[in-house]
Amino acid sequence: MTPHIDGARVRERVAELLAEYGIPSAAVGVLHDGEITEFAVGVRSVRTREPATTDTVYQCGSLTKTWTALALLRLVDEGTVDLDAPVRTYLPGFTVADPRAGATVTPRHLLHHTSGIEEHYGDPGEGEDVYARMVANIADAPQVFPVGHTHGYSAALGYAILARVLEVCDGTGWDAVMRDRLFDPMGLTSTTSARERVDPARAATGHLLLSAADGPRVTPVDRLPRAFGPGGGITSTVRETLALAHVLLHAGVAPNGRRIISARALREMTESRVPNPDPYGFGPHWGLGLVVDDWHGRTVYASDGSTIGQNARLRVLPETGTAVALLTNGGPRESFARAVLDTVLTELGTATVPALPAPDPSLRLDPSRYEGVYERPGARYEVSAEAGRLHLTLVLDPFHAELLQRPERIRYELLPVSQTHFLMPPAHPLEDTQTVALYGVGETAHGGARYLHTNSRVHPRTGPLP
After folding, report:
1. How far apart are CA 267 and CA 274, in angstroms?
2. CA 286, 290, 296, 298 torsion: positive or negative?
3. Could you say which of 195, 326, 387, 394 would form a disulfide bridge with 313 (CB–CB 3.0 to 4.6 Å)?
4. Is 178 exposed, middle or buried (0-12, 13-18, 19+ CB in 10 A)?
5. Angle 64-78/238-249 helices, nearest 10 degrees?
6. 272 belongs to the catalytic site
7. Contact 392, 412 (CB under 8 A)
8. Measuring CA to CA, which residue among 376, 370, 368 is closest to residue 414?
9. Active-site residue among 45, 62, 190, 306?
10. Mapping DSSP to helix (H, G, I), strand (E, B) and coil, where does residue 322 land?
């Protein structure tokens, strides 16, 4: 007999976790054996105390990237876009500081986050031409790494370039592409990329938890800039997020029976992969618009997203036909998401989230191979050694330090799992253990690590410690 979820028991556990983690609400949806179980717990806003429901719409953050990838693959199916043709094929004026990069970057590189182009797009504004402006603004954008050399997450720029390709090839704006190519054909009425179409009477409000004593506060930044639209601008309900999972589980077919992409395109989406330098953070491989993880030998497709105060998690287990969607208006805390997912998956008797690896105290590292400054605009990490142990200092800019009410310099210990992978225990009660990769050892002139990779972002080593 196929196990089914005890909705009341899971709901009770989620309510306990919300209280423990200071998150105002969560909507949980489970697709298993063709059936959907969904529920919501908590309030849409701590100010209004209005209850969250399964019809509450949440900001999905970078889960949006999976939707944008799906839209692009529709054009691939039609023969309009070739994933391996240079972006210049569709955007003739496309250029960046490195002429070779400008000539060779492809849509596949952008989907995989391997283009290496710095997020150097200035202020493109909030107008309808925002993605055209972003493309125009990167003519002098440098390379973080050579095209295709490694993985380095692009929060906004990579998928904004893809959105511009969609606009040019489809002859309309990105919001219209998403509506006409995906949302309307799938019969979705609560999912949108256009902020003006979000019903405020149903929208969750984002919250930040800066101290356990004070509890969650309404975020001062209620939405991301429009530049983040194709990479983080979609809002949706938990059930309509599961509609995306249905497409992934049913060879490209939506719940209403409409084929969205071909089975071949879906295989390309999940089987075209690049290695993730930090495999313990999100998963060992990146596909086209999603992460491909391994849970105890079982393949899992993952898509996550965060805005400033709202978070989304989607896990799809193709071998058991299972998907779990989790939308919240607080966090992010990976330990919270893990606890909710494990509660649901244990009920279903399927694979649960693997634990982080244990550090290996027997490893003997040469600290000099890792010490140095790793940075990009807006992000700086300093790796140092003390008594043979490695430490990482995160240097926050004044804006983020004030927003998060944290000091501008936060010091962590790095515990080695291998010669290139490390655990970073929390330095604050509201943090979780993080993972870090220091890799490309031997590629620099001094034989040390070339890159620091954490939270999917890559940071090149720029010099010695001050």
Report:
1. 15
2. negative
3. 326
4. buried
5. 40
6. no
7. yes
8. 370
9. 62
10. strand
